[in-house]
Protein 1
Amino acid sequence: MPGVINMDELTDVDKAKMERDQKKIEVKLERWLTSKCCTEFMEAVQAGVEDDTLVKGIAEDKNPFKELKGGCVVC
Amino acid sequence: MGEMEELRKEADNLKDQITEARKVVQDTTLQEAVAGTTLVGRVQLKTRKTLRGHLAKIYAMHWGTDTKLCVSASQDGKLIVWDTLTTNKVNAIPLKSSWVMTCAYAPSGNMVACGGLDNMCSIYNLKGKDGNVKVMRELAAHTGYLSCCRFLSDSEIITSSGDCTCILWDIETGTEKTIFAGHLGDCMSLAVSPDFKMFISGACDFTAKLWDIREATCRQTFSGHESDINAIGFFPNGNAVITGSDDATCKLYDLRADQELITYQDSGIMCGVTSLAPSLSGRLLLAGYDDFNVNIWDMLKAERVGVLAGHDNRVSCIGVSSDGMACCTGSWDSFLKIWN
């Protein structure tokens, strides 16, 4: 099984090695321009907002969580 | 120079390179990019249902994928599966250990899981032959409390723990498939990506980490918070991560830019974030705080556009149903509320 580690048994040197090795991986990441990310983020939000009930609200008679007034519910 | 000093120097050097690389791609801020957009209108949600039945603090809740059922966990020693439309209790499951801190609903609806100070993740089969809900597996290996758990399927679950690690389990055999180590503080929360290939964890070392489930590696680490990260979630399209911290802020980190895009904070908010959930489109961020309220943020403009005030104690958990129709809050006041 990969990565058998009990944190309690790691020495400070072990932890420092892990941290160093992890940063060696992260430094190689290819990063996108934030402008591209922001544009995509805005587009993703705008694309879904019309169907977002918490933003748009919902008509009382279409609301599945509306108050059950009177009568009985048999389920 | 001693080995420790050399390793620290190497790591610091690499961290400086990462900081530089992040600056290089920062050609705009989200604030600048959204300057032309309008603030979303004031959001006023009403309590539609109150789920009554727990006898002590509620610590966790999770919606089922069918959007009407949810499960909650309370330190009264029970897991309750609720029909949120009728407020009926579908199942009331007594737990061996009442010190529960997390619960999860399997995507199939066949199982629920929970865990806490017993350091274990207990899996319950809801669809047993005789109709009784029984413990199916007890996943034991963590050396610290279970803070969060999330199913990948009926055969795999991921857990996060106070022992600083996360574990991917094979439910069938009850054994650990992969241990994800790297955090230097208690792991408090985890969330699985929409495509089930990655997960993120938030910890008491103030960082969030993105993990590749199959490669068993940590891909990215996000810093910036000044205290424990208690809550974490994916933005609906899976390209960004949202965190909530004891430093009273929430942050949005973009995975492709490998950095924070914006912080959700207000000088009037000084208490920790306990829980968070984005709305269906990601336009709104609902975050629960220690001051008993839920603040609703416009995720683009980073301004508060609403408050859910209705609980008499800390809001410990929050979730938005998968069709986005409603939000559920759970509190130390022992009640769950459904809002829309």
Protein 2
Amino acid sequence: MTIADLWDQRISAFLLSPSQFLATTSTESFLAELLHELRNDKTNDQLKVTKTLLVSVLLEHPTILCPSASVGEETALELLSVFSHTPQKSIVLKCNVMLAITNVIICTSCLNTHTKTAEDWLDLLFQMIQDINDYRCGLSQQPIRATACDCLREMETCSPGLLSQKLEALYLLKQQETTVLHQSYCLLYTLGLKNAIRILTNQKDVTDLEFKSILGGNEGFAWKSNQLELTSLPINMLVQVPRLTQGLDCKDLKSIMSLLLEESYLLMPISQSALLRELVEVVAMVPGLSRTLFKSQLLRLFGTADVSLMHATLFMKDTFTDSLFTTEDENFLLKRLVGMAQHPLLRITEKLFYMECILHFPENRPISSSGEESLPVLVTPRLAAFLHPTVFNDSATMLCRLNLLCLVHLEANEGEADKGIGFLFDHIMALLKIVDNDGSREVVVTSLRALFIFLMHFSGMEELSEKLIDKLCDMYSRHSRLAPNLIGLADRIQEHPRPSLVGQVAKRLTIHNLSWHLKVLKRVAKEGQITQRNTIYLLLNVLINSNLCERGNWQVGNAVLAVYRNLLDHPSIDQVFIELADLLQYISIQYDDTDIKDHARIYYTLLTNLSWEKLTGVLAKRLDGGRAKEPAQSSSESVEATGEVRNWLEVYQGQFQTPGFGSEVTLRYNLTHAKETDPLFDKVFTICLHFEPKDSNYAKVTDIHVPCVFRDRKSPEVKVKLKPFQPYPTSLCVSAMFTTQDGRSWHSRLPDVSVSFPEIFLPLPLPPNSSRECREQVFERIWEATASGNSDKSAISLFCFKPEDKSLADLIKTHFQGYLITDQQSERSWKVLLFLPPKCHILLKITQAEDAAQVSIATDNRELLPFLNSNRWLNRCFAGVHLHRSF
Amino acid sequence: MHTHGQDRPKPYVEVRDDYARQHRSPAVELRLDGPGGRTLWPLLTVTQGALILACLPLVEAPPEPRPPLPSLASVSQGLALLSGLQDFLCGPGGKPEPDVLASRLAALPSVLLQVCPLGRPLDTPPPAGSVPAAVAPSPGGAQKQPAWKAGVHRGRAVVSVALTEKVRSMQYGKSSQQDIWDVYGMVMCKCEVEGVLPNVTVTLTLPPNGSPLQDILVHPCVTSLDASILTACSVDENDCSAFSGPYKFPFSPPLELFRLCSYTSQVPMPPILGSYQLKAEENHLKANVVLKLHESVKNSFEYCEAHIPFFNQNLMGSVEVKVSSGQLEVSKEKSLLVWVLGQKFPKSHEAALEGTVHFSGTVAGPTDPLCTGLTAYIKLYFRVADFTLSGCCVDQHSVQVYSSAKPRIVTTRELVSSEYYIWNSTGDAPVSSGAVTASH
């Protein structure tokens, strides 16, 4: 393998995951190797390519490779020397190095702290751009000069005002340059000009002299102008546009601006749009400049097919409104936008963008200025008719058009609107008909999204909504696999007053495809307004008249229980109390799975022993989920939970950025002799222990070397470091190679090492001095995230028991001492967090009620639950041999 | 990428399929795995075949609340950059050979370095295969060289102007549903003319009483426009007194082939009016098609074909179909009839097809979610050289070039069909659009 191939591989590995790559080496050494290779004097074409690749790493990840300003400065210095030693003809490499130097200097704050290297580099760049029209270095060096302009522009952007004292020099260069590069000079000058004026707006009472001196500046770099940093947002993002004082003499500036505008035509469209934006900002800040300066460009811009130029025109409209655009202009521009939003020759993404622009059109007289989508007054049903969605549109276009047309018809006067809404309704029905024929994911999701948009806008029109819901029910009876989609839809519609969807669907349930139906029933059970008699009879019917109980499928059982869990806190539970109790008892006796039986028994006990208020209280506190209509409450909680809490969780999670963090479990063993062996083996030397994981859940274990083991001495301790991919119990095959006193080598198989589930537990990996608050907050946040059910992998479980011989506190102390987050004995509640590498958590909330203890379990990896349950590990912890899972 | 959901076994995944999320914007959000579960937004994407091009524009604003897309300058620049990248990688045909694509991908880093140094777009990448032939470096001098023109042309002066007009149509053959059609055109130019900023003017003219060209979009190299050219807009009320040419486009050309302008037009009739009747009889389908060429259309086609596909059926068995003109072919796949009308319609300007199609018992043909039952269509493919429906043309003598050497001027025009459907009038055609073009 050549050096080039080797670097190719390494760089690919680095780019794939810098943190993982740097875990195998150190940042300093990798950086040193990179720079060393770059200094390599040998030049051939392949090496040039490799070097360019190496530079690109520095270009793209300067902060990873240069973690501090001092490293940044050293690196920049090294790169500078690489730059000066690279031959003239290696243009691409030289340009890359220039960009890398600039990036390193900016990103490691060498620029902001005004280091010597930054200063030297700026001087060098400025010197390079003096060579206008390639007089000195020739045409071949043109890309270097272009790059120098780009670098300066970047530095001015990141440190606004840097060039503010050099504007005259830059202006002259821009004027004299006639090659294609005048674009670069033009952009550089304009940015410098804009920033200089922006800085001046911070100053009170600017005099004519000060104002003029900006344009005539021909001095050094302005290092101290960093005050602009906070206010360098584009003006459309500011509440108030900063303005210079009135009455300044703008004659020179005006002629400069006119010239820039006149020549803007020579720029690439994207650069032209950037230039126009800068000029708009300048005019907005200088009251002495007239907006009509742009008049000459308007027609050209109105007609443009280029999306960035059209966008810049809208920016101009937003900034100047009626001081530049008449009502007629506005009307015209809007019509153009509607026309472009459906123009057959424009690209789909451009048309989508223009539709967004219509909904955020900068009107001269906006009715609201909230920044929300709103329909411009001038967009009438007639104007928008061409944007009617069709079944032939791609999904984004269709949804975008539908949303726009819904808004249009909401605003329209009655007769017109009814007709328009009718068309939209037909469209939705046509989509649903397609779903009937083609169940591919995209078709289903797009059609239901369309339906959702329609319902959101026209939920008040009972008749249409009823029809749509009927159609959905009809579809569900034919395609029960749509259950998750419909539940998702129902959840969304729930936030708005249309509760009947799920209820309607429930009426159509049959025994086929039970697992889908159970999901729907679970959702239906959350509907307070729907009586649950049908659900219960259906389940009773299913359980008694099928072999479901004998089959004892855990998943089906769980799905059935999930329905009950929601039924338990249903407000009209008393109407079906007896049937529900019967059902639960039936399951607790008949279902052929212990876990399901246990759960059913818990529910039965809860149902029969607690009043409804208490029951819902218990369920709301202890179990997952909640009633569907509580989004407001939970969102207010999460608002409060910002600030410090989030910080701790971020601190905690941030640690995992460090490669290898918390990924290992260390197990300690003693290496001893078997009871009786040949005396030959009483003294063995240079033992090499080799471990072979029996499954793929663990990374390869490195061999362990032990110098010697003597029978009559203390047995040495061996630390086995395990790196789980999945923290499941496992066992390792162990073999040993060693030498005996007679010099012979032996190979022997040792007994397997089995790693039990608790052995993989680690305490919450936080810095050792972290406060209790911090631990508790992290615990709570992980709990919330797990309980929210957002992740496919998380799970919540509940476990009840009656501690017998020992007190609960003692049990917890014995088993969870190292993992306790809080220990509030007085309140009889404990929180325990078990961390399992690489990044799994099992959280326990243990509370003691009067005669029983409850353990709520949350985990972000549901695969771990069986290890808690099936081995009855938890049982063993708490009750020794006595197993009690009921009250 | 969640949004572009690779086909996963799970039919419904909340983060991907949630109904309330905005899936109608050109920008999507990308949720990242890992600590904090952060989100990248606004991610702009362009999909072409298996290729997904994406870029993440800079948001120069506080991230919350999310600023509207149109308030971010970088969004349109990102869109332009992506379009440019797409052209660069895929070329005009859109489907490059794998090895061609691989070599273009290999060139991508250096191209990006040029057009987007430090992540700031300056330009779009040059479209693949667009490098012009005889180019010399700019001569230097007082005249500033446009950034979009790498050098100057050397050699024989040639100006080619090609006008292509496309016509789309949906015909239903029902009084309850209006037929719709529209016409759009584009003018492609290639100007090999000497000088740094040579002036060229191309003029489009319409016949007397021609309906005005609408929605005119021009290339950024067009130097000035007359306000009247832009006034006509398809979404507007039709105004017969509107400006109807001549349309003058003064510009200074770039070196490569470019689209000078595009327009839409409203014509009173579709070029070919069709009717399609399909009836189910026992175990076969009975088809009856009539195509009528409008008298104003030049009856000289480069090609003209009607494709009659049969979806959600078994493969075709015996076909007993007669045509009054042209030939009928059964496709190899046995699911499509191709009626080749050839170069000319008969004198009556009308051609008919009639007969029955049987479907053999066992093998299922192609499926389509729209075309079930008697919902079926015919799709027309045709091209007429030296003709446009709008009547728009570029007169060779109207092309003015202000340069020292007299250039050779080549102008062409053509009409091409695009998405030209005739739906079976005895079945339910999918609602294409209720309100559109009520004016026709």
